[in-house]
């Protein structure tokens, strides 16, 4: 899992061709690219992580399914306005039980995410399908507007886990080493704000870093909507992020209280949303990323 922001990975042979589109410019999941890769199946079988062939088959079948769309209402949204957003969300989705896409009826089910307050995930709809479903057009427009306003963050469910596990407190100094596009950074910022009392500004802050200057610029754009004073954006190669000693700690501890390290991805963790990877994935290219991933992780541990 993670982000493919390493230039060595972004070779044409690894990415494969772009998904073909029909005359209306609409892509079709799995119709133009065969969701098979013997190298991938052989590699995972060799890891001996499955108890039997049936579990391996279930794993591969899950990899072929589109990634469900998910989002969350910001934890820093005032309670009164949060109630209003929840009502609007209910109005847009409660009466829609199915959607017609490409002359096929798809069941619509929006379920809460248990470990994230006011987080939601569609059971079997990905982002592309939502955009193309006429019955969900009003919901999609509403979602885009609220995202632009900073009240809602469209974020993968698995991406919501690290900030929850980090248990960030208002006084914490946090480093996100590979931050772009910024969904986890936003979640941490909201946590810093909501855990303060009496409307005070948080004493802690987060340094959001990305080695790619263009992605760092995109990160600034993403975080600007939150209007928080507790964010610093840097663009440094994460392998060489400076080791900042703590001024008030004589035990040799580092400057940051929490460090989030979402290293560049080998690709197989993003196959459910980037189906082109099915045609180009190989363990040789992916294993070639391991030294980079390890170096970044070790830098974060210092």
Automatic annotation (TrEMBL):
Keywords annotated in UniProt: Methyltransferase, RNA-binding, S-adenosyl-L-methionine, Transferase
Family matches, as InterPro entries: MeTrfase_RsmB-F_NOP2_cat, MeTrfase_RsmB-F_NOP2_dom, RCMT, RsmB/NOL1/NOP2-like_CS, SAM-dependent_MTases_sf
Domain SAM-dependent MTase RsmB/NOP-type, chain residue ranges per copy: 59-302
Compositional bias segments (type: Basic and acidic residues): 16-25
Residues the record lists as binding S-adenosyl-L-methionine: 178-184, 210, 237, 262
Pfam families according to UniProt: Methyltr_RsmB-F
PROSITE patterns: NOL1_NOP2_SUN (PS01153), SAM_MT_RSMB_NOP (PS51686)
One biological process term in Gene Ontology: RNA methylation
Xref: PANTHER family: NCL1 YEAST -RELATED NOL1/NOP2/FMU SUN DOMAIN-CONTAINING, RNA CYTOSINE-C(5)-METHYLTRANSFERASE NSUN2-RELATED
Entry protein name: SAM-dependent MTase RsmB/NOP-type domain-containing protein
Protein source organism: Leptocylindrus danicus
